[in-house]
Design brief:
Elements (H helix, E strand, L loop, with lengths): L16 E3 L13 E4 L10 E4 L4 H13 L6 E12 L3 E2 L40 H8 L9 E4 H8 L8 E8 L2 E6 L2 H6 L7 H11 L17 H17 L8 E5 L4 H11 L19 H8 L8 E7 L2 E7 L4 E3 L2 E10 L6 H14 L3 E8 L2 E9 L13 H18 L6 E6 L5 E6 H4 L13 H16 L8 H14 L6 H15 L9 H6 L22 E3 L10 H8 L9 H34 L3 H4 L28 H18 L5 H12 L13 H26 L3 H23 L8 H16 L6 H9 L3 H12 L18 H18 L5 H33 L4 H23 L3 H21 L14 H21 L6 H24 L8 H19 L9 H25 L5 H23 L3 H20 L4 H16 L2 H21 L8 H37 L6 H18 L4 H14 L4
Parallel strand pairs: 5-12, 6-8, 6-11, 13-14
Antiparallel strand pairs: 1-4, 2-3, 4-9, 4-10, 7-8, 7-16, 10-11, 12-13, 14-15, 16-17, 17-18
InterPro entries: EDRF1_N, EDRF1_TPR
Pfam family, one: TPR_EDRF1
Organism: Limulus polyphemus
């Protein structure tokens, strides 16, 4: 074997071992040794039977063999979480006849010392009562993820219970879903310790356990210190040192496996820009760590194992500590070494011990070295799966698996309370294993709860596990468990003795209810949707329903799944936390107040301690060794450290210390070690702008964090109140949040640090929201009452704020000032947003964008507000005064400020909307600038009026340019297009109706009107018109065509010479009249249809006047009649509509003649207008008929028949007009004309 060959790191080995078993046989190994001991206090005389024969144990093994058949494979997977050695030790095979009684040359030498504790056989000295706590603190990520945390030796003891009569004594603790097991030596802790140590447990042991045992069973196993056992240990130690090669691969190396940190950090950096707004997490202080100092006190006796292994045994996950040395080299990269006496065969217990050690350490082989009286005889290489089949050492791995599952189920179903101390006990030769709840049973036996040495370690572990869960990525899914752990932690702590820990627990509890990484604006959606069914954290099982001393028979541990059902019944409930956001906020605020109370008590205690130190007598002050500036008080719970210097380099260290003292004297400055540590931590900490490890002590740091948490809670409450339109309550909560932010800022600045202002900026932004909405709400008196009403928690918070006499509060009192004036609130809102934006200059983009959009929104509100004020004042006075002009200027200023704000964050939609509002402002300006004469008559369009109309069109076009296309912002695009078409149409109508002929020629004005109308028509005739607005667009198109027809009609009349231009004008006019008639007919707007028809008839009548030929005149008259007859369907519809309206009016009219007056007036006006148009149509029809008669009479006998026909029709029509209504008369005439139509 190549002993010097390097092998792979065992941390990378994760080989699944599937081992099988066969029948077991009786073990003939016998041990006998008797020793006696006496307890110091003389109260009890105990006989200790050590190394008694294991014959009875192996009889139990034979019973198991005969009862249970050989099992199938057992699954095992071991992964190394931590190792203090880089690789297995190089293995050197010893030659035959090597004398192991003689020590090797390298024995106990530092150069070849086996790293970790020196191994002896069997292992009895490594475990302590805090071993599992040490592992749990080192691997808090495993707590609640694994089932058991313990020393490997304790696991082996439990799995050997059915095979051994040896006693069992272990302390059991429950942390979340994890069981912590530690060996408890009764002899050393209860029988040999001083009178005051473990006094409460000693009383319980004497009164409840020894009284129930028989005299023979009172003997308790203690450490085997016989000469034979010591010789075996020394021989095994020598054997290990013999087997180590001179070239041990690698040096001691602390290796912790963690492969996810780099990937997580990269993902966090990549997603940092896309995270939601978190103003209370990015700039918050990190929670001071109280665990380090406490661990030094309570875990100083803990043992650091050679390696920590995550062992999966079937469905059981265990974190175990082991010191078994692993050797390897060549073709055998990992083996374990065992030394056996050829005279003594391997028994079941020894084989089980070897098998479990290899499974736990993931070692596939074991090398057995056989010796005879210390002389090496031979080696034997066995695979791990072959160990259960060894002769005289056969056992069933399946049964071992059942034992493990049953023991775990028994512990989990009975040790259910986090924070309680349980004692797993089995007497020698006892058939029952008992579990005592010492916290409950020994409550009356402890004068001081702090007498339980496990209390503080359990509390600190609960705190550390909860904090680790809180810092994990999926902490939202573990809120119930975190809250439960922290509340159990609080029950174990004393606020006066551990104020820092208690304060930290209260802060974490407040952070569980309202997490710092939550966006306050979304907290309502996250917690209000699920209601509050599970409104409290589920409590643990009641003491009344659970026995305090449950037990299990040893023989039942071998039954498959015997206790599995009880574990499921007791672990089926998952703790829940309140879902209602309001209750969460108040619970969080309650814990903030509790934390502040604890901090102030700590301040008072430290102040009283300083006062006692100041009261030292002058004689004491003059004593040598006592400093007048600082007196270090001794801690009764910790030893006094002895300062020493290493032998090597002592002279150099002394010289350096002298030089250091000289330089300190020259500089006149003295720095304590804590200051140096603070400076180091400040230098290395670059996570946040302000670190809790800086010059702030834990009290100041916790106060800052608690005030920041209170500010966040009030911010969340204010967000919810604002959404519920409780504006007075919201403003009160913003006020309290701002005060908390101010106090936290003053505390940090008092230590010479810069405090980030983003939380304060968020409050100011929220205050801006409230001032914006406050004038729009109702019941303002109720809002003011809510603003002035302070709750109990609010008064307590204000009380703590007043206790800190650091500086005056109220710098931002203007932000939460109460006002009912709309303009004042809007101006306050703008001021809040502007200052908040200045504070966000170094913050995240999300916060800057949100506040900028709010600023743009409030500027738009102010712009519209001043715009409406200007119009209202102009309508009241009718004069363009300086006030109106000033209001228009204010409106324009705020709208431009809003556009600038939205442009800074590229908010395309809002930029377009504010440009559209600016266009509306320009149109209103143009409306106000319209000139009137003294009689109220409208004058022609002024130059200033034209300017504002053109500016309005400019801003509407700018809005469309910003949007670019309709694809992305369809609704905004359609709105702006309609506004732009309105601007075109209104400006064109003004130019057409009140043409500025004093400034421009008629033709120029007409060209401009046509241009404006055509651009408006282009916007209205698009195929993307929304269905709901289709009638509006159709009406505008018809109106544009009507206006264009009227324009060309007017130009035609004014054009004196008969030429091609005149003909084109007539054709243009007739074409647009035709389009307009089609549009109004589709819309069923009969009044406008009749009006346009009459104008069209007038066009051709004017054309008729210029004709001289008979044929042309006759043709024109026929065409005019056709235009008039086209109104026949419209007149029929009017008749039906009027009849229907009369019927409905008679049905809806009550006995008192009630009805909607406004609607009646509108209908009557429309009827009168229609009647006028029908009357005019009748007149035009009579004139056309007269013209026809006159035209035919001019030709004499040639058209005698036609003349008679038209004369007769004229006579009939005249007679019928007297006896018929106008509508019926027109229909009668048109029917006759249709029947006698000759063209």
């Amino acid at each position: 074997m190549n002993c010097g060959q390097e092998v792979s790191n065992e941390a990378d080995i994760a080989v699944k071992l599937c081992v099988s078993d066969e029948k077991r046989t009786e073990n003939n190994e016998k041990r006998s040794s008797v020793s006696c001991m006496y307890h110091d206090d003389g109260m009890k005389h105990l006989v200790d039977l050590v190394d008694q024969s294991n014959q009875e144990e192996h009889k139990d093994g034979e019973q198991l063999k005969s009862t249970y058949p050989v099992s199938t494979d057992v699954k095992s997977l071991a992964v190394v979480k931590y190792t203090s050695v880089e690789a297995p030790y190089g293995f050197l095979r010893l030659s035959s006849n090597t004398n192991l009684n003689q020590p090797p040359a390298n024995w106990l030498r530092a150069s070849t010392k086996l790293h970790g504790n020196q191994w002896t056989f069997p292992k009895t000295t490594h475990s302590t009562i805090f071993s599992s706590f040490q592992m749990a603190n080192n691997f808090t990520d495993c707590v609640s993820e694994v089932d058991v945390i313990s020393d490997a030796e304790n696991i082996k003891k439990l799995l050997k219970i059915p095979y051994s009569k040896s006693p069992i004594s272990m302390m059991v603790h429950r942390v979340g879903k994890t069981i912590l097991l530690d060996d408890f030596d009764i002899h050393s802790h209860l029988l040999r310790a001083s009178q005051k140590q473990w006094e409460w447990l000693r009383k319980f042991y004497y009164e409840h356990i020894l009284q129930s045992l028989q005299e023979k069973e009172k003997a308790m196993m203690r450490k085997n210190k016989s000469r034979c056992n010591l010789q075996n240990k020394n021989m095994f130690s020598k054997f290990l040192y013999y087997s180590v090669t001179d070239h041990t691969p690698g040096q001691p190396k602390n290796t912790t496996i963690d492969s996810s940190n780099d990937q997580k950090s990269e993902e966090e950096n990549h997603e940092d820009h896309h995270r939601p707004l978190q103003p209370f997490s990015q700039y918050a202080l990190s929670l001071p760590d109280p665990v380090v100092e406490t661990q030094e006190e309570v875990l100083k006796e803990s043992h650091e194992f050679l390696r920590n292994v995550l062992w999966n045994f079937e469905d059981i996950r265990m974190l175990i500590g082991t010191d078994m040395p692993i050797f390897g080299g060549g073709t055998h990269p990992a083996v374990s070494l065992r030394l056996r006496d050829t005279k003594k065969p391997i028994n079941v217990l020894t084989g089980l011990d070897y098998w479990l050690d290899n499974l736990m350490c993931n070692v596939p082989e074991v090398v057995m070295c056989y010796h005879l009286d210390g002389i090496v005889q031979k080696y034997e290489l066995l695979k791990t799966e072959e160990i259960p089949q060894l002769e005289n050492s056969q056992f069933s791995p399946k049964v071992v698996k059942d034992i493990a599952q049953n023991i775990l189920s028994f512990l989990k179903s009975n040790a259910t309370k986090s924070g309680h101390t349980y004692w797993l006990f089995k007497g020698k030769n006892d058939d029952v294993v008992k579990l005592y709840d010492l916290t409950t049973l020994c409550d009356d036996l402890m004068d001081d709860p702090s007498q339980n040495p496990f209390k503080l370690p359990v509390a600190m572990l609960l705190y550390k596990v909860a904090r680790n869960m809180k810092e994990s990525a999926d902490d939202r899914h573990k809120e119930g468990t975190i809250c439960k752990l922290l509340k159990n932690c609080l029950t174990l702590l004393d606020g006066e003795k551990q104020p820092q820990v208690v304060t930290s627990v209260h802060y974490l509890l407040s952070d569980v209810y309202i997490s710092s990484d939550l966006d306050p604006s979304t907290i309502v959606e996250q917690y209000s949707s699920e209601g509050s069914e599970n409104s409290h954290v589920q409590e643990e099982d009641s003491d009344e329903d659970r026995p305090t001393s449950p037990s299990v028979e040893v023989k039942t541990l071998c039954y498959p799944h015997h206790y599995r059902q009880f574990e499921f019944q007791n672990n089926k409930n998952v703790p829940h936390i309140v879902k209602n956001w309001d209750e969460r906020c108040h619970l969080s605020l309650t814990h903030v107040i509790e934390g502040l109370n604890c901090v102030y008590k700590a301040f008072q205690n430290s102040a009283s301690t300083r006062n006692e130190m100041d009261d030292v007598t002058p004689r004491d002050k003059g004593m040598p060794g006592i400093s007048e500036e600082k007196i270090t008080m001794a801690n009764p719970y910790s030893p006094i450290p002895l300062h020493y210097s290493p032998l090597k380099g002592t002279l150099e260290l002394v010289t350096q210390e002298k030089n250091k003292n000289k330089s300190s004297d020259l500089d006149g400055s003295q720095h304590s070690q804590s200051d140096v540590d603070n400076l180091r931590s400040t230098k290395n900490n670059e996570i946040t702008p302000l670190s809790s490890n800086s010059l702030l002590d834990w009290k100041a740091c916790n106060k800052v964090m608690l005030y920041q948490k209170a500010a966040q809670v009030y911010c969340a409450l204010a967000e919810a109140s604002n959404r519920a339109q409780k504006f007075g309550q919201a403003l009160k909560e913003v006020k309290l949040g701002i005060l908390c932010c101010e106090r936290a800022q003053q505390l940090v600045e008092s230590y010479g640090k810069d405090c980030p202002q983003e939380p304060l900026a968020y409050h100011l932004g929220l205050a801006g929201d409230i001032h914006l909405m406050l004038p729009q709400g109702s019941a303002l008196e109720a809002h003011q009452e809510d603003f002035l009403n302070l709750g109990t928690l609010d008064k307590l918070v204000l009380n703590f704020l007043e206790k800190d006499k650091i500086g005056q509060l109220g710098e931002y009192a203007w932000a939460y000032g109460w006002s009912l004036d709309k303009e004042s609130n809007l101006n306050l809102s703008v001021q809040c947003y502007q200052i908040s934006l200045n504070m966000w200059s170094g913050g995240r983009r999300a916060g800057y964008e949100r506040l900028t959009k709010r600023l743009g929104n409030i500027c738009n509100e102010l712009g519209v507000f001043h715009m409406n004020q200007a119009i209202q004042q102009w309508e009241e006075t009718g004069d363009t005064s300086e006030n109106v002009t000033e209001l228009f200027n204010k409106s324009f200023k705020f709208l431009q400020q809003g556009i600038t704000a939205f442009e800074s964050v590229s908010d395309i939609q809002n930029i377009a909307l504010l440009n559209s509002n600016t266009g509306r402002l320009m149109r209103l300006n143009a409306h106000v600038q319209a000139p009137y004469d003294s009689g109220g008559g409208r004058k022609e369009v002024s130059q200033q009026e034209q300017y504002y109309h053109k500016m309005a069109i400019k801003y509407y076009k700018k809005s469309l340019d910003v949007l670019r296309s309709r694809d992305q912002y369809q609704q905004v695009w359609d709105t702006v297009c309609w506004e732009l078409s309105t601007a075109y149409f209104s400006f064109a109508c003004l130019l057409q109706d009140y043409a500025p002929l004093s400034l421009q020629a008629q033709e120029k004005v007409e060209e401009e009107v046509v241009s404006l109308m055509m651009m408006c028509l282009k916007l209205c005739e698009t195929s993307n018109t929304p269905p709901a607005q289709q009638p509006l667009y159709q009406y505008r198109v018809a109106s544009i065509n009507h206006r264009l027809a009227s324009l060309y009609h007017n130009s035609y009349r004014n054009h004196s010479t008969e030429d091609l231009r005149r003909k084109q004008l007539r054709l243009f006019a007739d074409s647009y009249y035709s389009k307009s008639l089609d549009g109004f007919q589709d819309l069923e707007n009969f009044t406008e249809f009749l009006r346009v028809t009459l104008e069209r008839v007038g066009l051709w009548e004017h054309h008729l006047q210029n004709l001289t030929g008979f044929s042309s005149r006759l043709k024109t008259l026929h065409q005019i009649l056709d235009y008039m007859l086209s109104a026949q369907p419209v007149i029929k519809e009017l008749c039906n509509e009027q009849k229907t309206c009369k019927l409905l009016k008679s049905m809806e009219k009550g006995p008192d003649g009630g009805g909607d007056g406004n609607e009646t007036v509108t209908q009557e006006e429309e009827v009168l207008e229609t009647q006028k148009l029908l009357t005019l149509l009748d007149q035009r029809l009579r004139l056309v008929m007269q013209s026809m008669v006159k035209l035919y009479s001019s030709k004499g006998s040639k058209f005698r028949d036609s003349l008679k026909k038209w004369s007769r029709l004229q006579t009939v029509f005249t007679q019928q007009a007297k006896s018929m209504s106008l509508q019926d008369y027109l229909l009668f005439v048109m029917d006759k004309l249709q029947d006698t139509k000759e063209w």
